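G.,

No rush on this.
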Amino acid sequence: MDKISKKIKMIKNRIKLLRKKFSKFNIDGYIIPKNDDYFGEYAKTDRLKIISEFSGSAGFAVILKKKNHLFVDGRYTLQAKKQSGKNFHIYEIPKFFPKNVYKKKLTLGINPKLFTKKILNIYFGNNIKFKHIENDLIVNKITKEKNKPFFNLKNKITGETHNSKINRLCKILNSKKTKYLFITAPENIAWILNIRGYDNPNSPIPNCRMLLTNRKKIYLFAEQGKAKKIIKSGKLTANRVFHTKKLNEILYQLDHGNIIIDNLSCSIFYENIIKTKFNIISEIDPTYELKSIKNKTEIKGMIKSHILDGVALTKFIYWMKNGNKKKITEIRAEKKLEKFRSLNKEYIYPSFNTIAGSGPNGAIVHYRATKKSDRSINKQDLFLCDSGGQYKYGTTDVTRTLCFGKQSCDIKNIYTKVLKGHIAVASADLKKYNNGSKIDVLARKSLKESGLDYSHGTGHGVGFFLNVHEGPQAISRFNSVKIREGMILSNEPGFYKEGKYGMRIENLVFVKKINNKIFFENLTLAPLEKELINFKLLNKSEKDYIFFYHLNVYSKLSKYLNESERKWLAKLI
């Protein structure tokens, strides 16, 4: 039996074992999400992969008595078909929600620690009855967190003290006549306390929860020993730090009053505990909005990080196109890029798993090269590389599409239309196009004129030495959050032809203000693929944009490059 057949059989056996438990709990099916109980992007225990083999960063499965369904967004439909299609019917969100698929009344089992009320309402509506099963039906033993303690960031890196951030949050609580804020998203606690941790593979996340009172009192809930450096620094005293299991006990010691819980990350499990004593106000944690506006120190750190990252990426692109005689595979390219980044002592680790897709693999939006899928990058291939880094004072995320030989007029025209969309976003009038949904239209305009489109959003918010994907701002059809000075977003339109190729152009931008005018300023510094541009399709302002962008790349990076790299980069201006 080959490896693929073994995997299919293994998944079938796992589903069979799960179904055997349905009668015990009197349920028609069971829902398995991607997230863990901290609702982060990178789950410490990946239940969805265990039951489906799907390894993407978002999605959920519904196992019924006779059918298996996997719901993913447009980034992952091709990947899901490849990894799980033999055992699951794949549905693309938002084209299909479970509430549109399941017409009969069903009782579905859930682990209440893994779902919020809002998530269930959005996806399942009112037609489904949920049965809470606290003993997880997918895993018996949860993967233990790393034992490394959280660490502090200095004020000269963060640009604002933790006390200042707490004061701002307490002003919000008092304005809402609210006594308490229960913070369940670890990245928000990281921002408030100016701490980071080691609990995620690609983000410096400190897994913990926190209760803040309107009188600036803090109760931090974390695993034993994780907070010892925070206590030593004087940010918190030992009697303000509690084991996660003590949450129930502490809550019952507090006075009654209004409490804000985050409807994005406060699980049904915790909500049920809290509502027995407090008057719940369920809304988005106000920390998200405060965190999304970067201060001048954070912006400076991000600019510096992008110069370091730009050097590594530019050296990599030169190596890919000029400096290498051996056969390059996707995995070899990925390792080489990591080596270039690692040459800088400020670099820590990737901000997400590198996407290095050649030819047809590039059409899989969030492709991950494996030993089985690894391809040699041929001269006729397009090569899509989406990568990023965590630096000591910033987070990066950049995509470039490269070619190594003459491409067809059709491919060049499509790439140019993607580029036109990219430039339209970068040059947008932010007074007129003042939110993500309005800007998203600009990104797709040129492609749509040719009947083309892409199935993902155009951009996401980005954290400061935190999550590479961060809200509430985004550039997408569905995001109406106002674009404000200090926000950082990605600008990444693309196009994908299944079985053939993928192309995407991504820069990070920040919102800058000069003389009452706000506009996007590029952070990312790396050359564009000029060999894929049909300049006849560009107007003067678009040609000027490309010229000045490459001039800026050269002026910022040239002193860090060797003579051959400098000469090559100069020719692109």
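When you get to it, here's the other one too:
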Amino acid sequence: MCPSRLLGKLRVALVTIVAACCWMLSCNTQPTTTQNAQPQYDLLITGGHIIDGSGSPWYEGEVAVKDGRVAAVGRLVNPTAKRVIDATGLVVAPGFIDLHTHSDYTLLVDGDGQSKIRQGVTTEIIGEDVSAGPFTSLSQQDVSKSPRPSGFKRNWVSLADYFDVLQKSGISLNVASYVGAGQVWMDVIGNVNRRPTPEEMKKMEDLVAQAMQQGAIGLSSGLIYPPNSFETTDDLIHLASAAARYGGVYTSHIRGEAANEPQALAEAIEIGEKAHLPVHILHFKMDGKPNWGHAIDQVRIIQAARDRGIEVTADQYPYIASMTHLEQCLPPKFLEGSLEHRVELLKDPKVREEIRRDIAQGLPGWVNNEVESTGGWHGVMVAGVEKPEDKQYEGKRMDEVAKMMHTDPVNAFCDLLVNEGGTAYAIYFGMSEPDVELIMKQPWVGIGSDGAAVSPTMAFAGKPHPRFYGTFPRVLGVYVREKHVLALADAVRKMTSLPAHITGLKDRGLLAPGMAADITIFDPQTVSDKATFEDPFQFPVGIPFVIVNGVVVISKGQHTGARPGQVLLGRGKI
């Protein structure tokens, strides 16, 4: 064969081999190309100012989410995602954790949690003083302060059963719960003021331990409310010690927030010190006009405890009015027993005269006279009633209600409670703005609404305190942007990493890789509360996106209907 023909055949063979190699190479790399074309993340938030919850100032970058977790934060290189949210001009923060709520039952009525999720709240802390379990039976009296419609039926007994019912019903935000000291007292002794036997105390301790093993985050008490108010310091030390064995915290609505607050704070600190667990004070405030200006003294008490090594924290709502049961205006002995018993007592003219005298003159040891602390009946506003004929009184002060009823305030008060079956809700105007601001500045004070997750359609919730709808945006709009009481990064810390630390929620409260993807995106220039005492049924503005466990629940200001919320369990869960 001539050299030229051989050379030609070699060239053809070489071309064939190269072509084949190229084809094989393209076949081998095709899967890699396809794989690279798949988005890296489920969700990508771009263009925003990241405030990570630690208290550090904002920085630019992206937040990437995958499988319900934060996958990456910062300046990412060519990231891709199934969905991208442009947060230009907005703040990207961890989801807010509400340190003090009464959503125990409202979330079972409507799991969307509209009044809270629209505030940027992604986790509710429930179970103050009386929790949603344990109960000794389905028929046991339930004295929870969580609103619920008439005829609401409880179908669980243990706290674990409640968690299961709540999770299966579907919720838009996360929930963690305390076990209530008042709950276990009600279980074992009832709404009765007497000393427990050693056997009864052991039963209560065992119930606390059971709830902690089922996922409670600690023990709570509400010491102005029966049956909590019947418990002594020693009783509470025993119960708190049971919670301490499972890594819990002791949280308390202390016995007084007026002239007796120093003693009430000292009791809470003593319980924490002797039971060996952290102490958290609910809705830290200075109540009653004669006591205004003395918040600094209470701040010093807590700071002194911290300085000697006792972990004490507190929460606060940004309003000068509180909300609780209307019957708290009654002298203590009329709060014992059943609601039916209370109604019968209030019908008696002689009892009414006794109530009138006690409210006017005071009683030895009665330090929670709500009428006195608000400066009279005008400081008491009816907030929530059930009977249709009483709805006209919602939003009215008690002296105004008396005029509408053509009687005096004490008779109007008693008549209203009788018609409502012994209980109703009221708002009490008893605080000062300077004290609110002073407390807010303390680094160990977080934010808690003391409200419930409700919606304007829930008539049974009455005309609630505006904190139900506006607590968190009010802090950001009024106390950060307008009054400069807090720096923005510190306000976010008080809503995120601080409450996560207080409650022991290890994977919440920070924007960092591996943390749960609870995220709130808000406009620092426009975020604002709209709810007022006269018209509380108004959602805030300036919070266009809220993400829970990686799922967008609020998108462009509207609820998507998603319910990705989870029950978050405490350290002691077995």
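Residues 3-37 form the longest helix (35 residues). The longest strand covers residues 41-46.

Enjoy the weekend,
O.
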